Amino acid sequence: MTAPRSLPVAGPARVRRAAALLIAADKRAFALVLLLNGLAAVAALAGPWLVGRIVDRVREGAGAAAVDRLAGALVVCALVQLLLARWARYTAHRFGERTLARVREGFVDRALALPASVVERAGTGDLTARGTADVTAVGTTLRDVGPEMLIAAVQVLFVFGALFVLDPVLGGCGALGLMGIWFAVRWYLRRARTAYLAEGAANSALAEILTATAAGARTVDAFGLQRRRIGASREAIAACRRTRLRTLSLRSRFFPAVEICYLVPVAGVLLVGSVLHRHSVVSVGAVVAAALYLRQLTEPLDVVLMGVEQLQSSGASFARVEGVGQAPSAVPDTAVVPDGDRIEVSGVAYAYEGGGDVLHGVGLTVRPGERLALVGPSGAGKTTLGRLMAGIDAPRTGTVTVGGVPVSRLGPEQLRRQIVLVTQEHHVFLATLRDNLLIAAPSATDAELRAALTAVGADWYDELPSGLDTELGPSAHPADGAQAQQLALARVVLADPHTLILDEATALLDPGTARRAERALAAVLQGRTVIAIAHRLHTAHDADRVAVMEDGRLTELGTHDALVARGGAYAALWHSWHGDAPAPPST
Question: Which domains does the chain have, with CATH numbers?
């Protein structure tokens, strides 16, 4: 199994620019947060200074009235600080929620802009992990950690300013004592980002293995691959454990070192302050106030340092979220407009990454309104050719055009109006039946929705308890595989493209239902092009022409009757599938 190619990870400079753009998008709220935090920090500075004043006034022999006035002022300042801090936190949380919404919307827009081939090569696990765990980590930082850290950082700056205003010598002593924290933070930052990026990559790899195993459970069971998949899962879990232990090891050394550094400046200020007081340079109240300021620093510094740790984790997550925008995306050429609906495949060769060519010089013209069947043994290249015609992949050599324009130059919206590919893969959204259909045609009426369901033989919708308003999903009405596939076909009817590529799209339907759905589609799409990649050869029998693929080459092309009469590869397939009975008459 080929390892998936991970999506890009944004560098530090891009992450900083993205963060700056998020702040600029709501700069007034951000400025208000800064202002309120600053006022709250100023109010908090009054406490230690007032305590120091009370100590000095008591030593000077002041009466109870003077102490009561200072104590009352202390209470008022504490209340003001509390109210300002709560207001600042509320404003910051609202800012964080709005910013998180922008991050989520931007991620969805970028993810939807990714070509299907890029997502397939990266693996859905990586994209899922980025859109869930990583976006959640970024949201937690924006909503909770960011505001708390901002408040704490402002408090630290103001406390240091007050400490130096109180006494420059004591302030310098305290700052010198805290230098150990600076070295500890530098040591941690050099290692943390790489460790957290590795942890995120390991989580994505595990998610990819688990989702692939769950999605292919039947295949795993059919081919006896349980041991191999369990072994791969265990290796991925072990990798996750190693990366998580690495980040835990960094934290377990960083935080104890910081805790020790908190004690050094307080001890230093008390020792230096006692010497200065002995020489009548500072008062006892000033020394007490300086020590209280340094103790007051402990809580906001804890918040800041915890935030630094969280920022390394969420910063790595943000880099992974932003990295989605660096993945190759379709760049539409709005200047080109297809002239007609003819699809031309000329000299096409294609190779999947790490392998040889699976298509060799394929040339094919699909006429507007034609019903073409692509048949051939498994691995012949039918699905690959369908993907190239649908614009999902680009040929290594040669061209695939629609209306004379290379499909690779058409943007997703423009391409979907030209060609739609329907495969065995389908999805039922956790919403009503109506919402599941309106995805393809938001302005469709209920009558058009019912007509689309009827066209694909989805008569079961009449039996639903609430009709089109019935909720679909495991906890409501669970749609089975056949119903889900009929929903996918109904969306195609509503989308109304001029060319439809069906890659065994009715494989999960029973033969009778599949035949009814295909006949209904043929009637609904009359005058449009239908390319059916089929393993049930009755589809080829009903087609205008049949293209036979063998070993990545187009070996036969013609009507069903002509190819059966020729006695070549298609005739052998037909008689094998039909149990050696004579072919039915052409209709």
Answer: 12-206+242-326 (1.20.1560.10), 369-380+412-577 (3.40.50.300)
